[in-house]
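Journal club side-thread
Mid-discussion, someone asked how the predicted structure for our own chain would compare to the paper's figures. Pasting it here so we can look after the session.
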Amino acid sequence: MTQLEQLHADLAALDSQHLRRIRRDNTTPCSPHVVIDGEPYTAFCSNDYLGLAGEPRLAAALAAGALQWGAGAGASHLVSGHYTVQHALEQRLAAFVGCERALYFATGFMANSGALPALAGRGDAIFADKLNHASLIDGMLLARADVHRYPHLDLAALERQLARSNAARKLIVSDAVFSMDGDVAPLVELMRLAEQYDAWLYIDDAHGFGVLGPQGRGTLAEAGISSWRLIQLGTLSKAAGVSGAFIAGHADVIEWLMQKTRSYIFTTGTPPALAQALLASLDIIDSDEGNARRAHIAALIERLSTGLRQTRWRLLPSRTPIQALIVGDNAAALKLAAALLEEGLWVPAIRPPTVPAGSARLRISLSAAHGEGDVERLIEAINRLEHSL
C-alpha cells in the first residue's frame, strides 16, 4: 500500500467512525442568521458571544484603521511591525483586566502554544486539567517539562501531584471556562494551591473574557483574584468580535514572554487596523450597552436550560453561553444535528477527539445577537425530535 493509499484508507476510517469534519461556506457576515448554499439558517455555532463580530461600528473602526495604518504590519513586532495603536491596545487590555502589562498575539493558539514553553522547560513541572484546550496541550508538549494531568476539576488529585513534585519551577494550567462543557474552573482554590506550593497559575479565559465578571472583565475578575503568580490569557476573536489574543500579568512576566515566546518573536505582526477595531470593541464591552448584552445572554441561558430540562439528552449545567447537550453516540449526535439543519437550525455536533469517547454532543453557543424567538425555535425542535429520532 502506497502512502497515498494509506491516507485514503485513514480518511475512510474517519467516515466509518462518523468523525470526518466538514466545512460550510457562509455567504453572510457573522450573525445568528446566516445563508449557506443559498438557504437561510439560524446558527448556534459561533463564539461571537456579545454579537459584535458583525457590528457596523467595529467594521467602521477597522476600515478607518486600514486607511490610517494600511493593510499589513510588514515585519515581526520586535523588528518594525509594532505600532502605537497596538501599544495603546495592550495598555487598555492590561488596565481592563487589572494587570500591570499585556502582550498582544495574533491568535489564542499561538499565545498558549508559545507562552508555556517560555515559562517552563526540562526539569520543570506543569500540572494541567485533562479537559484543557488543545492549544494548552500543544504548549505543554513543546515545553518538554514533566506534565501531570489531573482529572477534570479534581483539586484533591492536583494537590497530591503538587505535593509529590520536587521541580524547582511549577506551573498550574487550566481553562477558566471549558470550551466543550461550559463549566468554570475553581479559580480561588487553584490560586490557593499555587500559593501553597509556590507555583505559577496560568489561566486561559478565552470564553470568559467579555462575558463574565464586572463589565465583562472575565472569570478571574469575577473570582476577585489578583496575584503576581497569575498569568491570564484572553482571546479577542470571541466576545470581542475581532481577532487575536492577549496575555496579561506582572510586568516582568510579560517582558520575559516578549523576549522568549517563539510564536510572538518569529511571526509577522498583526495588521494594526485590527487593534483600532479592538479598541472600539472594548468601548462597547466596558459600557452600559455591554452590560445589557450580557444580561440578555443570561436570560437566554436560563430559558434554554429550563426548556431542555426534560429531554432524554442531558444538558450539562453551565452559566455561560456554551451549552452542551450530551447525546453520547457519534452517529446519533450527527443525526440530531442533521435533523435540526433540515429545520433551518444549525447546531454543530462535537465528537472525539475533541470530547471524550461516548460523550458526543451538540454544542449550543448562545449570543447576545440571538432573539428570544430563536431560542424558542431551538427548544421546540429538540423537544419534538426527542420523540422521533
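Post-session note: The longest strand covers residues 322-328.
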